[in-house]
Amino acid sequence: MSTPIKVMIADDQMMVRQGFTVLLNAQPDIEVVGQAVDGADAVAKVAELAPDVVLMDIRMPGMGGIEATSVITRVPDTLVKVLVLTTFDLDEYVYEALRAGASGFLLKDASADQLAEAVRVVAAGEALLSPNITKRLITEFSRLGALRAPSRARIDVLTERETEVLSLIAQGLSNAEISEHLVLAEQTVKTHVGRILVKLGLRDRTQAAVFAYESGLIRPAGY
């Protein structure tokens, strides 16, 4: 039997922590190894417990979820993934959380199945980048005026095909969807994604999408 995915839950509301703990511990392949009441507590317990995935509430007293996410994901060679918890799918802080290193987001009212699947997806190194979040990224970059000429110094390390795959990742397409769009085998797409992450020094698909927008590779219509 494979080793269970170790999860830590960081939320200032005890009922949320306990509820998620019960739901996740009911899964045969997931184990909740700890809870944290705020960002600082989360950072300390991640160092102590070494979870695979942290469910991180954005809004907590003291050190919030965004700052804690940044601290956790910037530890050299860390394998810990952060899944942000939010009340609304267009939470104003989701964009900042993704930039801070989160691998995706999850609504607090998600079903037990959605919660468990989200943990599995993130633990496997994938990213939860829904169409709503993709739209949010575009909106935020447009509002902040962050769109500019692509950073050729970094983008030029990619092949033409890899650049094409990166642009599709940024639009929220899964490997299967990219495979269909480009008429490539899904394993070939996975290989391209892996090479993109290595060449650009990025953690996962979410960070690749953020890079695509920040570099100006992807621009919303009208910009």
Description of the structure:
The protein has helices at 14-25, 39-49, 65-73, 94-100, 112-123, 131-144, 152-155, 160-170, 175-182, 186-200, 205-215; strands at residues 5-10, 30-36, 53-57, 81-86, 104-107. The protein has two domains: 5-127, 3-Layer(aba) Sandwich (Rossmann fold), CATH 3.40.50; 136-215, Response regulator (Rossmann fold, 3-Layer(aba) Sandwich). The N and C termini lie far apart (51 Å). It has 223 residues and is of the alpha/beta class. 39% of the residues are buried. The protein is globular, with a radius of gyration of 17 Å. Helix 2 runs parallel beside helix 3 (65-73), helix 8 crosses helix 11 (205-215) and helix 9 packs across helix 10.
Characteristic terms for this protein:
223 residues, alpha/beta, Rossmann fold, 2 domains, 11 helices, 51% helix, 13% strand, globular
Structural class, from helix and strand content? alpha/beta
Q: Termini, distance in Å?
A: 51 Å
Overall geometry comes to globular
Kindly state the percentage of residues in helix.
40-55%
Report the radius of gyration as a whole number of Å: 17 Å
Tally the helices: what do you get? 11
The third-level CATH topology of the largest domain is Rossmann fold
The number of distinct structural domains comes to 2
Q: Helix and strand string, N-terminal first?
A: EHEHEHEHEHHHHHHH
- Per DSSP E runs of 2 or more residues, the count of β-strands stands at 5
Q: List the uncertain runs.
A: none
CATH superfamily of the largest domain: Response regulator
Mean pLDDT: 83
Do you know the CATH architecture of the largest domain? 3-Layer(aba) Sandwich
β-strand percent reads 5-15%
Give the class-level CATH name of the largest domain. Alpha Beta
Main beta-sheet strand count, sense and barrel state: 5 strands, parallel
